[in-house]
Write a structure and sequence with these properties.
Helix content is about 30%, strand content about 25%. By secondary structure, the chain is α+β, with helices and mostly antiparallel strands. It binds 4-amino-1,4-dioxobutan-2-aminium adenosine-5'-monophosphate and magnesium ion. It catalyses: tRNA(Asn) + L-asparagine + ATP = L-asparaginyl-tRNA(Asn) + AMP + diphosphate + H(+).
């Protein structure tokens, strides 16, 4: 059997012991003295390990034909490295080639760096690069830390459905799920598509959010969260939007907006701490190559309170800051990315929780405030990326909810299961959704959410 390279570089394996690794060649360098140096990586940590191969090996010729991307099994003695930069290396006494690169000229991985756009088109290559390898480990660390955080706080992980009949956000950005023959659609007398003949007997879609289902379980289990894929047929072709992205959605019974604003802050600090300690190697790479402040800003933000501001006060700040925005601000408008970023980057210089938005720009389920103009909504906005979390206290009063559904032209019947929660032991409850790719993009400093998900889906692009 073999051992992960991270275990060897951590220094937990005794020097002078015999070890076996399996991985892929990153680089090979041959010395005139008859030694070949192989840098081998296996994805378990940022650094490759160096295997020092003497020409006394009977397949030395084979070793000196290895190119980037070949897979190998190396056995040898673990020794302290004398070279700089590397703590340990392997004095190889056997190198077995597991897989050749058929034609090295067609394997476009060399010392030269590829653009991140180029990599998106080359599925086999992408995860073998330094940058995507580091993103993948940080992403994994963040998702494990999120599960750990909620588990430690007594939350139950609920798997909400991917196929749904409800449009949670009411934005009409849903992908349809159907087994109807598009070339021969059944029609009603009126000429509309007859979805009663469809698989589910009605219209069905990919979910935009697990929230409504999450509320059902929070109304029984008290503290739940979802963590799963969500889908939006949004027309926004930006560096912050995906058609398929992952969301983490805690939903908490007996909690108000302030409770979940605090939950969001402690959750983010918990996962920032996790990457700072568990993925130091990758974070150092991001700080060197992608975003200078990748480490320092996380260190700063785990130490201090996030800023909190009411929407109304945020508007005043933006009106009075003297900066020209592309979208002019006045009370009642939705905040655009440029406004959010001004608040986080220039005004507060920290993540900021913006609360109590105008009701007219928000979803039907948000709880109305006493002033009749605003709802108990919040967004968490981070420097460098903008909105990463959206949440609210939910409207738990049936009469107020019904009035709102009616006002927005939504069909009460469609929401009967959701309205039932307000009829049988209704309680104040609140929750939020964290856009997982936005979090990973923020933590790593990667400029585009497409580069922090394994297989990005965006408008006009679903390669492989
Ligand atoms: O603000 P949103 O639309 O809120 C909801 O869906 C609520 N139902 C959540 C809840 O209260 N349980 O989306 C939540 C977060 C956003 O803050 C953003 O980070 C992310 O999801 N998000 C996207 N991320 C990538 N691509 C997209 N197209 C996204 N749309 C939203
Ligand atoms: Mg939002």
């Amino acid at each position: 059997s073999h051992i992960a390279i991270t275990e060897l570089l951590k220094g937990t394996v005794a020097v002078d012991s015999q070890v076996t690794i399996k991985g892929w060649i990153r680089t090979r360098r041959d010395s005139k003295a008859g030694i070949s140096f192989l840098a081998v990586h296996d994805g378990s940590c940022f650094d490759p390990i160096q295997a020092v191969v003497p020409n006394s090996l009977n397949n030395y010729d084979e070793v000196t034909s290895l190119t980037a991307g070949c897979s190998v099994k190396v056995t040898g003695v673990l020794v302290q490295s004398e070279g700089t930069g590397q703590s340990y290396e392997i004095q190889a006494n056997s190198v077995e080639v597991l897989g050749w690169v058929e034609n090295p000229d067609t394997y476009p991985m060399s010392a030269k760096r590829h653009s991140i756009e180029y990599l998106r088109e080359h599925a086999h290559l992408r995860p073998r690069t330094n940058v995507i390898g580091a993103v993948t480990r940080v992403r994994n660390c963040l998702s494990q830390a999120l599960h750990r955080f909620f588990h430690e706080q007594g939350y139950m992980w609920i798997s909400t459905p991917i196929i749904t009949a409800s449009d949670c956000e009411g934005a009409g950005e849903m992908f349809r799920v159907s087994t109807l023959d598009m070339n021969n659609l059944p029609r009603t007398d009126k000429g509309d598509v007859d979805y009663s003949e469809d698989f589910f007997g009605k219209e069905a879609f990919l979910t935009v959010s697990g929230q409504l289902n999450g509320e059902t379980y929070a109304s029984a289990m008290s503290k739940i969260y979802t963590f799963g894929p969500t889908f939006r047929a949004e027309n926004s072709n930006t560096s912050r939007h995906l058609a398929e992205f992952w969301m983490v959605e805690p939903e908490v019974a007996f909690a108000d907006l302030d409770d979940v604003a605090n939950l969001a802050e402690s959750m983010l600090k918990y996962v920032f701490n996790a990457v700072l300690t568990e993925r130091r190697d990758d974070m150092e790479f991001f700080a060197q190559r992608i975003e200078k402040t990748a480490i320092s800003r996380l260190e700063e933000f785990v130490e201090k309170d996030f800023a909190q501001v009411d929407y109304t006060d945020a508007i005043t700040i933006l009106e009075q800051c003297g900066k020209k925005f592309e979208f002019p601000v006045k009370w009642g408008v939705d905040l655009q990315s440029e406004h959010e970023r001004y608040l986080a980057e220039e005004h507060f210089k920290s993540p900021v929780v913006i609360k109590n938005y105008p009701r007219d720009i928000k979803a039907f389920y948000m709880r109305q405030n006493e002033d009749g103009k605003t709802v108990a909504a919040m967004d968490v906005v981070a420097p460098g990326i903008g909105e990463i979390i959206g949440g609210s206290q939910r409207e738990e009063r049936l009469d107020v909810l019904d009035a709102r559904l009616e006002e927005m032209g939504l069909n009460k019947e469609d929401y009967s299961w959701y309205r039932d929660l307000r009829k049988y032991g209704s309680v104040p409850h609140s929750g939020f959704g964290l856009g997982f790719e936005r979090l990973v993009a923020y933590v790593t400093g990667m400029g585009n959410v497409r580069d922090v998900i394994a297989f990005p889906r965006t408008k006009g692009s679903a390669t492989y």
